[in-house]
Structure formats: structure tokens, C-alpha cells
Amino acid sequence: MSLRVLGSEIDRLDEAVAARMGLHRSDLRCLEIAARAGGVSAGELAERAGLSTSAVTSVVDRVERLGLVRRVRDATDRRRVWVEVTDLGRSRGWEAFQGLMEGTQAVLAGYSVGELAILERFVAEIRAVLVAEAAKAAGRLEDEGDGA
After folding, report:
1. How many of the other CB atoms lie within 10 Å of CB of 68?
2. pLDDT in tens, 79-103
3. pLDDT, tens digit, 9 for 90 and up, residues 31-67
């Protein structure tokens, strides 16, 4: 199986989960980013998700209305807003991805410590390639938008 096929299957799962939760794909992506970070500033969320700050504002508005995240003002800089996942958001995320997490753990249990180390290195290296290619692609799209 190719990594492109794996990526497509991950996309398909994300689309189904987002639809079941009443979210857009970008909403689900932002929810995941905030959950992994344990809370994130709105600006950082926009950067990590590859969205404009106005798009992230719309995402947070939608997801906050569903009770999955909350906005918290920074105690030292009142201009800064943190986006935190609520208990309901964590619970809904667990429910949505429980089968994937348990299935993944079952698969990983069949590998030795050494094999897991190789897999971890492989995933980290592929992720680095993906991040670099996404950045290049975003740069090309911005260049095209500028008439270059």
C-alpha cells in the first residue's frame, strides 16, 4: 500500500468523523490541534492549521457553539485568546476515534521494541517530508496568487 492511499483513507475517516460530529473538516483539524497542544492561541491555531486568522475565528465560533472548545483570555495579555478543548470536546473526540486508537494499539502490540523504533523513525522522517512539501506548496500557491 502506498502512503498516498493511506493518506486518502485517513482523509476519508476524517471526513466521516467531521460529518458525524456536525463539523467541517477544518473544524475537526483545529479541534485536534487544540487537543494535542492542551490549548493554543488563536493565532498559533491559524498558523498550525494553515488557515487565515479570520477563517480560524469562524472555525472557533462554530466549534464553540457546539460546546467542544472555549475561548479563554490570556491573564497577562488581554489581547491574546487561548482556544481550549472542553471535556465534551475530549469525550466526543475519544468516541469518534476510539476504534482507530484501539485498532492501532492492537497492531503495534505485534511489533518488537526494535521494530517500533524503526517505525517511529520512519513516521517522523515522512512527517518532515510532508511538512516541507506542504510549506513549498503553500508558497507556490501564494506566488501564483500574487501573479508571479
Report:
1. 27
2. 888 999 999 999 999 999 999 999 9
3. 999 999 998 998 999 999 989 999 999 999 999 999 9
* Identity of the amino acid at 19: A
The whole-angstrom separation of Cα 142 and Cα 20 is 33
Find cell 485517513 and name the residue: 10
pTM for this structure? 0.81
- The CA–CA distances, whole Å, from 24 to 16, 29, 88 equal 10, 9, 18
Tell me, yes or no, whether 103 lies in a domain.
no
Grid coordinates representing 22 are: 456536525
Does residue 102 belong to any structural domain of this protein?
no
Q: Are residues 92 and 116 in the same domain?
A: no
| Contact partners, residue 26, CB within 8 Å, separation at least 6 | 49, 51, 55, 59
